[in-house]
Design goal:
Two copies of one chain form a homodimer. Chain A is an alpha/beta fold and 202 residues long. Chain A contains seven helices and seven strands; from the N terminus they run αααβββαβαβαβαβ. In chain A, a hairpin with a 6-residue loop joins strand 1 and strand 2. The radius of gyration of chain A is 20 Å and the shape is elongated. Chain A starts with 5 loop residues before the first helix and ends with a strand.
Chain lengths: 202, 202
């Protein structure tokens, strides 16, 4: 007979699938939930339920939204001549938290990776080109803000080649970012430096 | 207009209430859940729902159980002459994982703390005495396995005083240097305890 109740093991398994949560953390969290009581369990349960039901993807940029166009794309004060291409929604949050950038975003939803079987069709790349080629597009500069990693660089190089014929300036982030690091872990100062230090590509 | 959808903020708030989960961790977890999709959200939701519905408290020791007496108390091979008194269910898991102890447990559900307003009535202390004074009790030794902290010590001292008239041997956990620890990193309190608790060699 196992030591822990089945439902406790289940919660630990589910929590353990989340990034940065090991077996011990998942255990501590599950026990804390149980001790906190059914009201707190209910609150988490309802919140997670609403998460998948209510949160949508912005039809413009691919960032998360309560429905319709996201707050960034619907903000009339954002600079519509700048488009920052990022891997995922966490990167948008990181840039917004760092401050300084007032343009728009495009969330790819991943990086190209032959090893992991991620090809251009798996990312929001067709949508990115639709957006750039739209007749009312005011985009003058595309910042390829991919992570300074092999996959990030490969994705940037791929996108730069595909965009070569378009009438947009291509830049990528300044190498103020430490190699091997991931965007979501970079601090605000590093991100601001990287924005300021962006350089023409090709 | 806030950057993040309300439901995403809600999940982050609920996850952020769990031990060891800061704002950034909660954010990373919530985004990962969202990206993982509704199936994974469903799985977590259902697991948390089952947690509060299915997991009960063992009427004997206060540890978590699927219902009825827990696997430890219902194990005929456990030594019923030993009772280890711990603060919470996580401690039971820690001892069971460490191995070596084959007695029973009593989970208090906290530590006495005048500052936090925790008095004996708030803990499973009356139940502990019921258990000790039961006519069929075979308990010969009570191990007061409270944390080596002010509150843990106060709780152990309180319990020892209350149990003085009972015909049981009272012990508490050995104190000193942790395994694998180095002398230079040990704090003064630990070193003093280690000196006081020195034992004859060979």
């Amino acid at each position: 007979m196992p030591l822990l109740p089945r439902a406790l093991e289940l919660v630990m398994t589910e929590l353990g699938k989340l990034p940065g949560i090991g077996r011990r953390s998942a255990e501590r969290m599950a026990f804390a939930l149980l001790i906190a009581g059914s009201e707190r369990c209910d609150a988490l349960e309802k919140a997670v339920e609403r998460l998948s039901e209510e949160v949508g993807v912005c039809p413009e940029c691919g960032f998360f939204t309560d429905g319709g166009v996201c707050p960034i794309d619907s903000d009339p004060l954002r600079d519509r001549s700048l488009l920052c291409v990022v891997e995922d929604a966490m990167d948008v949050v990181a840039f917004e938290r760092a401050g300084g950038y007032r343009g728009l975003y495009q969330v790819l939803g991943g990086m190209l990776s032959p090893l992991k079987g991620v090809s251009p069709e798996d990312l929001r790349i067709a949508h990115l080109f639709d957006r750039l080629e739209r007749s009312d597009s005011r985009i003058e500069e595309v910042i390829l803000a991919t992570s300074p990693s092999v996959e990030g660089d490969a994705t940037a190089v791929y996108l730069a080649r595909e965009m070569a014929s378009l009438n947009v300036r291509l830049t990528r982030l300044g190498r103020g970012l430490p190699m091997g690091g991931s965007l979501e872990h970079a601090d605000g100062g590093t991100l601001r430096m990287a924005f300021e230090g962006r350089r023409a590509m090709g």
